[in-house]
Amino acid sequence: MSKKNNLLVAASGTGGHIFPALAVSKEVEDDWNIHWLGIQQRLDANLIPQKYNLKTLNLKTPRKNIFLFYQYIKILMSTFQIIRILKEKKINLVFTTGGYISAPTIVASKLLKIPIIIHESNVVPGMVTKYFGFFM
């Protein structure tokens, strides 16, 4: 029996991010140990099967107000938490579908030289895909 590789799926928040990631996860689950990174108090806890080892971060959806810059800094600071997760789980590949959980996950993966797949299912790319796609 061969040892499976470890895949981190970073998809959270809405069905537009979660359902494409679930479809991909279902297709590869026989060949990969799947770990899921989401955000607390979002749809993740209700939609992600337990077999995908859901780990959530305590982040809030950025809101356009005078604290927007601070909110973005907090999201990017979660990169350090994600680095720890990537190392602990010995992740070999990261798959993300955009959304604000993707930004720190992409940065952490690049710092650790872990390959990343970004899936964008919209005609117009979202902000994270647009600004972090150059990391590919």
Strand content: 15-25%
Portion of residues within helices? 25-40%
Sequence of secondary-structure elements: EHEHEHHEHEH
The number of domains is: 1
Low-confidence region ranges: none
User: Which word captures the global form?
Assistant: globular
Taking all Cα atoms into account, the compactness measure Rg is 14 Å
Q: Structural class, please?
A: alpha/beta
Mean pLDDT: 82
**What is the architecture at the second tier of CATH?**
3-Layer(aba) Sandwich
Can you tell me the CATH topology? Rossmann fold
Count the strands? 5
What is the CATH H-level superfamily? Answer: Glycogen Phosphorylase B
Cα-to-Cα separation, first versus last residue: 32 Å
Q: For the largest beta sheet, what order do the strands appear in spatially?
A: 3-2-1-4-5
| Sheet with the most strands, sense and barrel status | 5 strands, parallel
